[in-house]
Amino acid sequence: MIKRLTLLLTLMALLFLLPACNRGEGGAAGYGAGGGQSLREGSTAPYHSPIAQDQTYQTLLGLNILLYPAPVDDAKFEPFGTPHWELDPSEFVEVMLGAFDGTMGEQAVYEPVVTALQDHPFVSEIQDAIYGGEPVQVGWIYGNNDSLDLLEYNGTTVTLVTARNVILFIGGKDKIDTETWTYGTGDTMAAYVPENTVVEVYPDTLRSMPVRVLDETGQLTAVIVPEGLGLEAVSSGDGMDQALVANDRWIFALPEVEGGYYAGLTGDSITIEPAD
Questions:
Q1: How are beta strands 183-184 and 197-201 bridged, if at all?
Q2: Pairing of strands 265-266, 183-184
Q3: Could you say which of 88, 138, 177, 185 would form a disulfide bridge with 117 (CB–CB 3.0 to 4.6 Å)?
Q4: 228-261, pLDDT tens digit by residue?
Q5: Nearest alpha-carbon partner for 195 in 178, 210, 209
Q6: Helix (H, G, I), strand (E, B) or coil at 15
Q7: Which alpha helices (DSSP H) does 64-118 contain, by range?
Q8: What pLDDT does residue 52 have?
Q9: Separation CA 43–CA 191 (nearest Å)
């Protein structure tokens, strides 16, 4: 009798939960009709978000389910930046891929000025749409880097153009501990940015180096900033300026990171499992 009652209660629970799962409720990884948006609690992204339906994203999500990286079109990204879907970077990305001749090593490499990209017509579109026509410089970041090891702050708008799918760790400047001048890795969120996307990152946002999604390709990301940013040598100082590495570039790094950066990032490094 007890076994029958237990079985009946189990069946009733399943019947109750199935509709909720179909609506994306009651769990961390429900899916809307048609296999689309991963419906995290608080997510307002469309059920049929093209990003969330992408097979690469779904694979990445399954391998990094505890981290739960949000698609860049999720509302949780809005405090930190905005994707510019009205801008089509595809031709610019083709030029990036053709001009790139670096090595995808385990550490990300940032080159603040890439002459081959500076005069591309798409840069003028970025300049007008995001920087009000003010002069900009174009560089890039590349590598097969797989983890959050440092955060950079610039105090100005930074525009990223992805040639490959990436994960970007971001956090608000207000989370800097102004007593110890440190920042915790747990105060960041991870966002998935697909290739051929233009993302404006707001001035009060700290961001990681873009992290590769696929080992096969690594990551290649253009970085467009106001002209002259990061080109002048400066001396570090007190307070937040302990993290100063160049004009308008502050870097908080984990203690084990090489490069002589300020050890102002606390907590654990967060590694992204690749989707290939």
A1: unpaired
A2: parallel
A3: 138
A4: 999 999 999 999 999 999 999 999 999 999 999 9
A5: 210
A6: helix
A7: 90-99, 115-118
A8: 85
A9: 13
